Amino acid sequence: MLQRTRNGRANTVLVAGGAGFVGSHLCDALLARGDRVICVDSYITGSEDNIRPLMNHPKFRLIEKDICHLKSLDEPVNQIYNLACAASPPQYQADPVHTLMTCVAGTGNLLSLAEHYRASFLQASTSEVYGDPMEHPQSEDYRGNVNCTGPRACYDEGKRAAEALCFDMLRAGRADARVARIFNTYGPRMQPSDGRIISNLLVQTLSGAPLTIYGSGNQTRSFCFVSDLVAGLMALMDVDPNPGVPVNLGNPGEFTINQLVDMVMTIVPSASTVVHKPLPQDDPQRRRPDISRAKELLGWQPTVSLAEGLRLTADWFTASMRPDGRFDNA
Ligand code: NAD
Ligand code: UDP
Questions:
Q1: What is the model's pTM?
Q2: Which CDD domains is this protein grouped with (predicted)?
Q3: Is residue 214 lining ligand 2, measured as CB closer than 6 Å?
């Protein structure tokens, strides 16, 4: 079905970060409903593999560029999704200044394009804006507990600044900006080497390496399967009128890291042992979204259970293994 904009034209959608894990699934979903997609990506953490099947699609185009330097486009767009930013802690901390500039200068550039083309804009924000939360579960009204000088600040404070930019542009009537606060998301196409918990555990169990638990493993997270997240992002972009407030998108099921390890070991039985490593500085102890707002405004809620999503993800990692039992980039 060809999706129409609110004034009846077909969508041309810019997806910044479209070669990444979430972004590539978003490109797939937009193309599947008939939109034209312009993917902008610098490949800093994304991969050409994620979008290779799209390269010959008549409605897909890649612009290889860093959003910190993206000042203009050569064709109009009517929707802009900003997913461009490393999301895994080791990756966003590898070049923290660039991460912060991506969030601030890069988001600023994309908002200027949204203003210029009168395009709707969706910012991929994060549950990290709540930091190590003092309220549980986290609703959008909670203002967070973030260390602005720690190693996670480039990401947490960068995303908070990006939200401020979005709401300033919205209040000034300069851009139709929307903000999704995304909680931990997983699924096929996570990079084996990206360092996040679910990709680490699956790579480790499939290759027979020890499973790494940071700290006691009693810290919690809520894990959303990528297809559910993409549906939520598209619902927030398309809802009319603009809610004008941030919206949490995540799966409210809450699991300790120890419980997650047990589930992974059940789904992918292996001889792997468990090793404990130090808890990274400022690692949040608890995280679980209150998704009442998304349910009410978007009619959205996740449909894929953690067990089902882990099975689908494990199948994908199994299929990506090399014959020698190792992974590229792991
Ligand atoms: P990812 O690292 O797989 O994807 C990010 C993509 O952005 C990559 O393709 C990367 O090359 C590109 N990129 C990064 N900086 C760029 C720049 N300056 N210019 C151009 N391209 C750039 O991460 P992901 O998990 O797909 O996350 C996508 C978005 O969702 C990010 O903005 C992230 O902050 C947000 N988010 C993700 C999660 C999650 O659990 N996956 C949770 C909260 C928020
Ligand atoms: N973690 C872990 N082992 C790993 C990777 C991560 O125990 O191999 C922990 C990490 O310390 C955190 C949780 O799992 O408490 C989720 O980490 P991830 O990097 O996936 O996401 P984030 O910390 O950004 O929520």
A1: 0.97
A2: UGD_SDR_e
A3: yes
